[in-house]
Amino acid sequence: MRAKLLAALLVLVVALPAWAQQQAKDEEVQPRFIWGLLLNVAIAKLAGQGWDIFTNWLFKSTPNVNGRSGPPNLTADSGAQVRARSSGAVTERTAGSVAGDPAAPLTLDGGKENYQGVHVALIVASADGKQFDLRPVTAGFKTGERFKVRVVSTFAGELTLENINPRGERKHIYPAKADYVVALQPGRETFLPLGKDEYFQFTKASGKEQLVVNLADPRAVGANASRHQVYRQDVKYGSNFLQQVAPNTYPHLSQAIELDHTAH
What we know:
With 264 residues, the protein is mostly beta strands.
């Protein structure tokens, strides 16, 4: 009797009309506003799928982010501005990132994402400035190389760059004034330094030092700063970061990039 009942149920599932099967697919993949951009995606049920949705958003926001259609467009106006640091700037940031899948799936609660993301890449220029090598943050760079740092964020954030020299001394290096930040627009590809023909170049030192990228939502202060781990995904054209944010909390991250003076 039980076997007959199971067989009947299997027949019922197989015999579902085409419209019912299509309805199930439509429920899985729907147009949704995620990080301000309309995407045809299914909200992730598995934590690792958050990277797929972030990559989808990144490619929609900056179609040539992987460099397949040519060199980076360094002349594009990203809307980024150098301005005085906001009073709400976070003073304590998370300690770097860990490679791997986020701890929880990406969800939309009342239309609000539970994660915010950032893309960071090294754009290393050839000697003549016509060729560019795209690198994740883990690849680092070598003494004498000229490079820009590319940043694309899902949120409007304040960015600073710091340097930790081989002696362990840490100082603010960009923007030039210590109490200033680069205010980023969400979904816009920004190249630092901001000037088209400006590049970073570290020389005349020995050992290893670090370039530290700090990025925070200006509201990420005190109890409103997310304390969740920052997760990282390294790909050939850069590194992606995701941090979970609970209601009324905001993202902030700090990522070091290694400079090796001993490699020529």
